[in-house]
Amino acid sequence: MSVRALAPWCAAVSTLVALAPAAASQPAAGASPAAHAAQASQPTPANCPALLQHTFPRLQDESPQSLCQHAGKVVLVVNTASYCGFTYQYEGLEALYKKYKDRGLVVLGFPSNDFLQEKSDNKDIADFCYNTYGVVFPMFARTAVRGSDANALYRQLAQATGKKPIWNFNKYLIDRSGRSVTHYGSKVEPQDQAFVQQLEALLARR
User: Where's the Thioredoxin domain (predicted)?
Assistant: First the structure.
């Protein structure tokens, strides 16, 4: 699928913010029992930045996954949906993950129905992502990403950048230290030149 041209006003709007250390947050109100169980299932490694001190159920089987396993990587967090005009971005996100994962990139997908464009069943979402776009980057069970029910990670990301998701495929790019976050809107595609340049700059830092 070809990359769609972006108008100048669609260029990346970046907000870099230093994150102060904080204790791991609890699951949001209304979170599923699996999310609550996942949060309490694993201890927090001493070298895990505060932003990654969360555990979420995996999309395919709701097995608890600690984000601390990605400490030291550049992390791209994206809220996704199956019926959105931006759903085609799955293809670009997967291509980005395959190209840069050996250099330290991980893409984390968080399906959400906050904008009424996601399937209701996690298995259906997983099957759609894999069968349609070949997605193998880590994805998590359907969750809220904005408002009072937003999960703990998304609350921190919104606080850090001052930018809440206003649509699907909103992007947060986190550096290796887990302390700086850059926000990109939904219209910024995974192959956008400015976005890729920023990503490569973060990957080059050790």
Answer: 14-204
